[in-house]
Amino acid sequence: MVFIADPLTDDRQTLTMRDAWAAHLTDLVDADPRLAVVLADISSEMFAEAMKAHPDRVINVGIREQLLIGTAGGLALAGMRPVAHSYAPFLVERAFEQVKLDFEHQGTSGVLVSVGASYDWAEGSFTHFSPRDVALFDTLPGWRVFVPGHAAEVPPLLDRAVRADDSVYLRLSLRHNENPHAVPEDSLLVLREGARATVVVVGPLLDNVLEATADLDVTVAYTNTPRPLDTAGLRELAADTGDTIVMVEPYLEGTSAWLVAEAYEDRPHRLLSIGVGREELRRYGTAAEHERLHGLDAEGLRARVRRFLA
User: What whole-number distance in Å separates Cα of residue 189 and Cα of residue 182?
Assistant: First the structure.
């Protein structure tokens, strides 16, 4: 747990998280012969030059997501550090059996990088939504999950993922905060202090939470590395707010509730979980509209937190 720090930069986001990831990964592939990139058509145009320079280490398997994960797992068995990429529902849900077998069961590790998040491309409909992805990774031991809130947070997180010995899921989104924040490794960054509750917010929902709680007497702590969750820091913070906790996550509501319960098995606490609802919204619309309908905009968040505190 670390208290208020300066942002990484003062600039508004000008590139998307995917832009920042692809540019930085290209540089890393040039510098590290151990790295391999496996694609399934998605974002392949962003690696055209890298494919020419490293045809044996930048591979496009086509629209075959199970093969994508299988190839990455095989490269890991051969001693490479694979980075596999596609839309979240294709990378995680469609190919989850391969993630389970070709990484977890085989005892290998790699980096999986998704785009699309919970409903970024709302026009693409339910086939392109993946609010359940982090919950699925929670069924496998040892996976780290990184959820940046701004494009400038992506390169340092990617560096950590590539250097790690264990497996990492990097969840990119078009939703973002106005400014990036330098979050110390595996810690909560405290941006505001209060007395009535501790609000922990993950990734791109930070600005909405700060606006929603602007006049509420609550502590706000930010993380872009929700796995492992800084439960020791949470316990320390929440002790000053009556062990009253609000978890705000940009994926399925309640995903982190089990971690909070595990951290608090020795003392009572109150928890409000806020995230993407379980009800399917059978409309296209825009990502902003889905955010509002799930109550994840500032107005919706404020209403739920106020009811909880009342």
Answer: 8
